[in-house]
User: Fold this.
Amino acid sequence: MHNGRFNAFCEEYGLSPDLLNERSFVLLREQDETLLKDIRTTSHNESAGDTIANFIREKTSDMKTRLHCSIAGGRKTMSFYLGSALQLFGRPWDRLYHVLVTPEFESNPEFYYKPSKGREIAIRDKNGTITGRLNTEDAEIELAELPFIRLRDKLRLNGKTFRDLILEGQREIDTAMTQPAVRVNLKDRIVTIGDKELEFKPLHLILYTYLLRQKLDSCCYPDRAYCMECTDCFKLITDITGKRAMEAMLRDYEKTYGPASGQVERFKQTWKNGIDREKFRSDRSKINKDIHEALGNDTISTLYVITSTGKYGDTRYGVKVEKGKIGVE
Assistant:
């Protein structure tokens, strides 16, 4: 490094070549940790994408850092991955750039940077024969800032690979407009749908949470990205009002009040054998009424109310909202 073009650049402009050291470089590796010599195959591309995305995710997790990223140089796929990673994780103060160079200089292998004083460089044909000369004073270099959409904090992304991150992001975007997220805060006894907060009665909160959890914990098709019209996780009224369901609801009830609360003990005694079916039907109507009134939109409300499917005697109950839009804490 200290005998090459970078060293010459530093000497000419009075910079320290120690600006770059071994810690300045991130080496691209295959899944088996083998160093990538180039990016030529699909596997190489995916490995490069994973490394770049995870690097940007790590750096943006430190709020004291500010990223200035250039897509100039390297393989085109590297530029794509860098720009995409910034879209996923970039913060308002992070920046993306491209370096624009006068075409005849950009393609000339003798031009590495614009010298402080002009000098001539040769123009050669494919055989190496000199066909002309350029003066470096004529080179124009511009640092162009590129705008990009920042999706950080607007998408829930947990994927480890670039491909996983894109799939997760696409799922979030596909349902973002039609299905606001529903979040249950057991401790504060609040259900949030989009930007609307609903304060449910304790039993209503626990019952509603139980049905939401069926989509998270009892999905029959966990590999499917979307629920769509699937209702296979919906429960019979005998299941919802039975003793086993009460034991599951009790765990959430304890999170709301604390395991030593008298409220929890009263819940145990009152519903130790399950909830009366007529009470479930009554509570379901009250929960649905609260949701309809809070959202004020019948089309949206149908995704969040406790709905039913099936014929009499085989009626099942659940909530239609996408499982990826549900959060319980």
